[in-house]
Amino acid sequence: AKNLGRDNFFIFDRETAPAGVNRLKLVEELRRGIDNNELFLEYQPQIDLMSGRIVGAEALVRWTHPERGRLMPGEFIEIAEQTGAIISLGRWVLNEACRQNKAWQDAGLPHITIAVNVSANQFRDKALLSDVFSALDTSGLDARYLELEFTESLVIQNVEQAVALMEDFRRIGIHLAIDDFGTGYSSLVALKNFPLNRLKIDQSFIRDLEYKESDRAIVRAIISLGRELGLNVVAEGVETAKQQAFLLSCRCETTQGYHFGRPMAADKFSKLLGMTRTP
Ligand code: C2E
Ligand code: CA
Ligand code: CA
Ligand code: CA
Fold this sequence. Notes:
By secondary structure, the protein is α/β, with parallel strands linked by helices. It is 45% helix and 19% strand. The chain has 11 helices and 9 strands. The protein has helices at 16-35, 77-83, 85-106, 120-124, 128-139, 159-171, 187-193, 203-206, 213-228, 241-249, 266-275; strands spanning 39-48, 54-65, 69-71, 113-117, 146-150, 175-181, 198-201, 232-236, 254-256. It has an 8-stranded mixed barrel, surrounded by 6 helices. Helix 1 (16-35) packs parallel to helix 3 (85-106) and helix 3 (85-106) runs parallel beside helix 5 (128-139). The longest helix is centred in the middle third of the chain and has 22 residues, at 85-106. One calcium ion (CA) binds at residues 179-180, 200, 202, 236.
């Protein structure tokens, strides 16, 4: 094992070898965890700033690992993406999010849009369209109450293919949102090419709004850009009343963040939704 060259060196590195083994174990456990119903979703409210009403929820996946307890997506999504496990994970998330939203509607709660995160690898997979159809069909949820969130990383892959798939989604009434807007290098290319309904300003631009005039200028500009393009604009990571007031002054339509509500279990979310029932 001497002449394998630089690219293969990591295989024999004492520091990374054990981590590699753990990753394999994690993928195996994740596959089993999906089958054993160890995954669950939390829901974070999205608020219409003018009315103060909940208009949507973002579904965020969590995993109750039998030994390690509750894991956040940061601890397993990347590995799922690299190994292809994201396809079955994503399918589970789609089904569960649609089922839950339909259950809220059937319980007489206000109708909201449920937003599901779709990773670049899911988007490349041919099965995504049929997975989405099947989740809507099985749950009975109307397509207009489902939103797919994706990041601009799709742009650097196959733009034409991505646009064609997005147009298929739009045709059946599904909403499309670009997530983490402004964090990559191709945000404007994504705006130019993709048939979007919504733009989500990344939380890194919201965090320091109170202290940084430059961030205020950027956020103001993104909001008016979104408005010019006829997109709904959501500010993510809104944690304070001051941030919210600033966003309102810029006529930002929607917010999402700890200030209004953290991601929460379905039963807690449904109580919150029930309290905001329209008169
Ligand atoms: P994201 O799509 O940008 O989701 C927003 C993240 O910001 C969530 O973290 C949420 O809990 C957190 N957040 C919300 N409001 C605030 C706030 O006011 N302050 C701060 N500091 N954070 C806030 P979470 O749940 O840990 O998810 C992390 C990422 O994992 C997500 O980022 C998304 O990229 C990915 N993810 C989550 N669920 C799924 C899923 O079902 N499928 C896929 N493919 N990715 C997912
Ligand atoms: Ca998201
Ligand atoms: Ca985001
Ligand atoms: Ca993100």
